[in-house]
């Protein structure tokens, strides 16, 4: 695999949880320096999480939605020019998850807000020239269950409404030339192999994300998943973990922070149990030529994570 | 019992754990200080150790606190066990200037009061309507609409043992030209005022004059320093000015800015203020260090004047 075009996700910046110096993450200057450091670490492309939360409360320094980009740069083209001047040639993809909107029992609110902002994310992906919008098809299972204790009885209802939402997005994505991809998080209502039934109900234009850490936590082999669904993989996330879910943490309200035993679920690439050499070889063997993005979600140190990730890719290249 | 008790306005971002029983193991995973900022047990112990007996939470904390603790009551009990009480919650009265938003603004305010009561709090510091950019300048009628909403929420709050305190940000639609007009349009028996010492100074009020003028309306304080008093309209009315593009900080720990906080304490003594004072550290890169610096300044510079 030619690792040169591999992107890095901006989810390596821990903008939601407390840590010293976190305040920097809300100012424009931080990101503009970060782009140059990402380029210096050898990444020519980035993935951007689309987060509506920064639209509210005056936090538009975080460039994670259309409002913020327009507020700080005027338009997407000017933002992309800034990226290019910093050594970032492409926005490879945009991600979107609807957890923000699972805040009460009102499903009309959840699906209405999710549909609206996912549509915004899709249009933003097109404006950014991104290859894909990778969408999480549900909120955290455990967060949904808080407001819908009868979630299992409502599974069909959730599935129907999710399918309707995604079918609409898929049509819009085709018009915009962006690939709509289903994320496959271990904590999802549609996690693990459950994603397959959802994908079956959607147009063939909707692809699957192959995310190595999420599949590992769900108890699935990434290479097996690749062999079984090679024709439908829309993007690949090289993510790492050593987490084994022996206590149904995937059903917890905040599943990335196992409540009974604190641990870093997602490790910096190279620090967990994922065999990236094996996975990349399998991708080559399958003839996969689509987008590949590294993620150091939950890193304790984004700048160390950048270089740790580069070290992993350098070893693969050799 | 001192006249002033000290709290912290909660500016911790999401805290993912209640308590970390495997702290050493968690630390060793990546050997960074993240472990020290990941559970409420530690955060509340820091507060308690530094003499901050109260915490004022924010509505955006609820999405994390409630799943973690199950209920407001559980969180308050957990905090109390560590020597900290929940004194109240901040509230934003979005669009209260809009006549057609009256019912929604009052409903939302009442819900927030109900939440505070469940936490055992007694203060609801309330920002009247949203940012100036995109909304201001407000007409006289719109200011009166804000006042009507505040009076109505204030009536409900008072009936439930909660004091609402107007809390103005320097970038709000209620701004220097109508700040005092709003205060004077509200019912003093129902609507109080929380002086955010830095915000009102950046807004253009003279802190000492403002407190002297309104001392009988003051329910509580957000104490913080600034080196940026009296900002011009071009800054206060700009789009999203709270977080500066270049990292400029509007707010500093008491003693690190330029406000006459000793003068304020002399006035507190003159007017015999009794109640809670929340310290705010928004914009700080290290909330724990800010808390410790503040405690030193309080004990050595301010509390000797009035305690």
Structure description:
- The complex is a heterodimer of chains A (318) and B (307).
- With 318 residues, chain A is of the alpha/beta class.
- Chain A has helices at 28-40, 66-73, 76-85, 107-127, 141-147, 155-176, 194-200, 212-217, 222-229, 276-285, 302-317; strands at residues 7-9, 45-50, 90-96, 132-135, 179-182, 207-211, 233-238, 240-241, 266-267, 292-294.
- Chain A has a single domain (7-317), classed as Divalent-metal-dependent TIM barrel enzymes (TIM Barrel, Alpha-Beta Barrel), CATH 3.20.20.
- In chain A, the strands form two sheets. Chain A has an eight-stranded parallel barrel with strand order 1-2-3-4-5-6-7-10, surrounded by four helices. A two-stranded antiparallel sheet of chain A has the order 8-9.
- In chain A, helix 7 (194-200) links the parallel strand 5 (179-182) and strand 6 (207-211).
- In chain A, helix 4 runs parallel beside helix 6 and helix 9 (222-229) packs parallel to helix 10.
- Chain A is globular, with a radius of gyration of 18 Å.
- Chain B has a single domain (4-302), classed as Divalent-metal-dependent TIM barrel enzymes (TIM Barrel, Alpha-Beta Barrel), CATH 3.20.20.150.
- In chain B, strand 5 (123-128), helix 6 (140-159) and strand 6 form a beta-alpha-beta unit.
- Chain B is α/β, with parallel strands linked by helices and 307 residues long.
- Chain B is globular.
- The mean pLDDT of chain B is 97.
- Classes of the chains: A alpha/beta (318), B alpha/beta (307).
- At the A-B interface, helix 1 and helix 5 of A face helix 1 and helix 3 of B.
